[in-house]
């Protein structure tokens, strides 16, 4: 059974589809603003951060799946001052939100043509 104790705070005309899209935007914005700037040195650090971000997304209400890929150039050096920081352009996120009968698949990724990291709805539907 579907339960949302916060539904009463949203305007009565907000549909499940609109709310699912809203929730997807919240999650993608969180990724950008919460995780950019994290220092990275080793591939295992990147792998761990991908899992942390996925779990952070899925911890939020109505998020049912998340996949995160981080593409960064890591320096292969012993210099303790050589590291990179996570930038939005390095993050590719796919997530799924289910709110009521509505399901949204949303993406955050670098679009070279736009020279921008675009958050967008890849698919939106309502289950029977």
Q: Topology, please?
A:
Layout: H1 16-35, E1 39-40, H2 43-59, E2 63-70, E3 84-85, E4 91-99, E5 102-111, E6 116-126
Antiparallel strand pairs: 1-3, 2-4, 4-5, 5-6
| N-to-C SSE string, H for helix and E for strand | HEHEEEEE
Number of strands: 6
**Alpha carbon gap, first and last residue:** 14 Å
Level-2 CATH architecture: 2-Layer Sandwich
How does the helix and strand content classify structurally?
Answer: alpha+beta
Strand order of the largest sheet: 2-4-5-6
Helix proportion: 25-40%
* Count of the separate structural domains: 1
What is the overall silhouette?
elongated
Runs in which pLDDT lies below 50 for 5 or more consecutive residues are none
Write a concise keyword list for the protein shown above.
128 residues; alpha+beta; Pantoate--beta-alanine Ligase, Chain: A,domain 2; 2 helices; dihydroneopterin aldolase activity; MptD_sf; Dihydroneopterin aldolase
């Amino acid at each position: 059974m579907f339960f949302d104790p916060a539904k009463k705070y949203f305007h009565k005309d907000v549909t499940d589809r609109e709310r699912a899209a809203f929730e997807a935007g919240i999650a993608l914005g969180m990724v950008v603003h919460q995780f950019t700037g994290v220092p990275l040195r080793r591939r295992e650090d990147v792998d761990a951060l991908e899992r942390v971000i996925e779990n952070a997304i899925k911890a939020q209400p109505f998020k049912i799946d998340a996949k995160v890929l981080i593409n960064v150039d890591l320096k292969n050096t012993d210099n303790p001052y050589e590291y990179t920081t996570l930038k939005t352009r390095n993050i590719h996120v796919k997530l799924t939100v289910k709110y009521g009968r509505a399901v949204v698949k949303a993406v955050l990724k670098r679009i070279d043509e736009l020279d921008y990291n675009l958050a967008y709805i890849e698919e939106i539907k309502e289950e029977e």
